[in-house]
Write a structure and sequence with these properties.
By secondary structure, this protein is an alpha+beta fold. Helices cover 32% and strands 21% of the residues. It has helices spanning 49-70, 92-95, 103-113; strands spanning 8-12, 24-29, 32-38, 74-79.
Length: 116
């Protein structure tokens, strides 16, 4: 990470989730707990790896929840590999129910947003 201020309490990955690629880096900078994510992307809904993506988002939800309990100010940012609403993709009808635009993925994204 590149910041003008010093980062503290840096964490890679999610402590309670084994992810060899460690798609998350978390740090506190200027009193804000930053959770920078690269959410896993899968190629097809019927791919077994889609279940991995589902489990990963469930773990992300738990991780963000725990960070919000520990820190007063938390910001989650990064690449979610989800188009939250139709306007986020060109030719939305073509993307409907395909990877990045499934009802499940959009639910996972909204589930994180509901945390605040």
């Amino acid at each position: 990470m590149l910041f003008k201020s010093e980062a503290s309490d840096v964490l890679t990955g999610m402590p309670d989730y084994k992810d060899e690629l460690e798609h998350i880096i978390t740090a506190t900078i200027n009193g804000i707990r930053l959770i920078n994510v690269y959410c896993v992307n899968r190629e097809a809904i019927d791919d077994s790896k889609f279940l991995y993506k589902q489990a990963w988002f469930a773990a992300l939800y738990q991780f963000v929840s725990s960070q919000m309990q520990q820190y007063e100010k938390v910001m989650v940012l990064g690449d979610f590999n989800i188009a939250p609403i139709d306007i986020d993709v060109y030719g939305a009808a073509k993307w409907r129910d395909k990877i990045l635009c499934t009802v499940d993925e959009r639910y996972w994204f909204q589930h994180i947003l509901v945390l605040g």
